[in-house]
Structures are given as structure tokens and as C-alpha cells.
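I'd like us to work through together how a protein chain folds, taking it slowly. To get us started, please write out a protein record for me. Go ahead whenever you are ready, and we will take it from there:
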Amino acid sequence: MNIIDQFIQKILYSLRITSKPFGGRSGLSTPKKDSKPSKGILKPSVAILVGHSRSGDNGATTSDSSTSEWEYNNDIAQRTQKILEDSPIKTSVFNKYKGNSYTQAILQLSKDLNKLEYDLVIELHFNSFYNPQASGYENIYWHSSKKGKKAAEELQSAFKSFFPKSHKDRTIKAISHSSQRGGMLLKHTEAPSVICEPFFGSNKSEWKFFKSTKGRNKLSKAYAKAITSILIPTP
């Protein structure tokens, strides 16, 4: 890149419009939409969704009953956004879904995401199972989305890089029906979308790691690394 190109790019970066993240459940702020929020190299964009953000739905609970899925992932979403704030990636956190039912909430959310034209959508979760020995990490995508599969692969790779080697790689998973977990969001959202399941909250050993500050930071860095690799791939 020559000096003139660098100068023009710096000017354009300075004009980049950023969106305000959603606040807590008690207060919702709407991200501002510009004319082309995700088009072109200057503003790659990601929507980080906090799973179970519908009123009255907190998701699963950890093995020690100390933390809900929503509470944990809301913290991780904010940490991830903080890591990305100095990058050219426009990041929005959604932690309050409108709608009285799950179907209504997800369809409205997908509609809103499509209007805002994000380049990538990830929804943060953690797994839970009646067998406390169930363990590992996986990422889920819509079966016919090549970009969704690629995004899931990047997230899986980042998890593997940042997590302890003892944590099980459950591989990425393709789903093909809206009734499957996360299927409605993946099917109706136009941007490449991934449901992220980095660990089992019902597994005492995994929760001990991810509950810690170290574990939270590792997970947030893994998300940030994957998002950056997906939206700003190296030549």
C-alpha cells in the first residue's frame, strides 16, 4: 500500500460510524444504522448475541448453581467487545430479545439483524447435560451455509488454541432443521451465523476453569481472535 492509499484509508477509518452496544436487560439501546454498515473493507461488523436474552429465560445453570447461562455470557460478550474496540471491526452486543415467545423473539431478532446487514453473527451459550461427565466444545452452523461452516471452523480452532489441552474437541456441527438447537436463528439470519458452545456448565472441572478470571479472559480472547480471523483474514 502506498503513502496516498494509507492516508486515504486513515481518513476513511476516522469517519467510521460505530454502534452503541445494548445495555443490561433493564435498558435497551438501539445500535445506529448507517447506509451500508457492513459493506466494504472499512467496516466489517459482528453481532455478538447473548443466548437466552428473552425476558424470563436465563438458560442453563452452572454445576454449583452460582451463575446462569445468560449472566455468564453477558459478561463474556462485554469482555470480547472490549478486546475488539480498537480494531476496525464494528461490534454490537445484543442482550435483550423482544418477544413473548421463543419463536417470536428469534424471528424478530433475525429480522433486526438482517436489516442491519452484519457480516457475522455469533450467539454465546454453554452446554449442560444430566451426565456431569459430558464435556468439550463445539460450534454449530446451518448446513447449507459455506461461510457459516468456515466461521464455525475458525471458532473451533480458536477454542482449541486457547483452552486447556485436556478439553475435548467435539467438532463443528451442521444442523438442517429449524427445530434443532439454534436452528431458527441460523436458518433465518442472512449473515454467516454460529451457535457457540465452548464448555459444559454442568461439568465441575470445566466450570472451575471457565468461572475463573483466567478462563473468562481465555474465552473472550478466543472469540476475539476468531472474529478477527473471519472478518479480516490474513493474505
Confidence is low (pLDDT under 50) at residues 1-42. The CA atoms of residues 5 and 179 lie 49 Å apart. The chain is about 40% helix and 10% strand.
